[in-house]
Amino acid sequence: MPELPEAETIARQLHRELAGKTLGRVALMRPDIVHGDDGLLDSLLPRRRVKRVWRRAKRVQIELTGDVRLVFRLGMTGRLGVGPADLPLEKHTHLRIAVEGTTHELRFCDPRRFGGLWILTARDDDPDGKLGLEPLDATPGQFRAALSRRRQIKALLMDQSAVAGLGNIYCDESLYAARIHPLTRAARLDREAVVRLLRAIKRTLRRAIRFNGSTLMDYRDADGREGSFQKLHRVYQREGHPCRTCRTPIGRILAAGRSTFFCPKCQRRGRSKPLHDCRGSDRMRQR
Ligand SMILES: [Zn+2]
After folding, report:
1. pTM of the prediction?
2. d(CA 34, CA 31)
């Protein structure tokens, strides 16, 4: 499912395609993807200019003139893209919005329909008012405050009201990079471990964005292409394969109700000190 790097990739691509352009005719095939009044699409959208497209947490937001904002949640299988309007419609395309002065249109497609669209004006509250820290902008102090809870670190990182944008893939990859066991109580991490984890999260997310995200099943970017960061995963869905640092087989446990992949040797429980003696971790650090 799309997480922060995938949503960021789509938002950047849509920004390049749409900023400064004016939206036109709207065709809504599945009104139930719109939260709130779907009549707003027809009454608010046409002839509004796109100011910018940006990401908050795992959502893609299209900001229009006149304080109107389209907030897309991608859910499990949501895809947003701009392409030629005469291209055959992909199955499960629920929304098309023409881009004036071009032969292109914006399309939202979502086979499993866990995603959706909010149309917000200046008066409306954010649909996810309680979104937590943006990890790429967080300072160590803010991050430490967000983690000062007794919950297990994996569960806390997955909780969007604590840290926004991380899901199963990037939690596992970041915890591995920081050498932290996923079941460690967050409040037990010392200052050094918290700093190391924030650094690992930022580095993992930035690398994933550079590789246009991870495609495991459905994810495609706004140009319809697959991401390639899945080729660089070190633990996620690598159960039984040798750890790229110590050759120990990658393990899988349940954490936060989700399959969680980790190295039983590099990420020992209770250890929050860095492995100075570990060649692999030095190699990681140099990247
Ligand atoms: Zn290992």
Report:
1. 0.91
2. 6
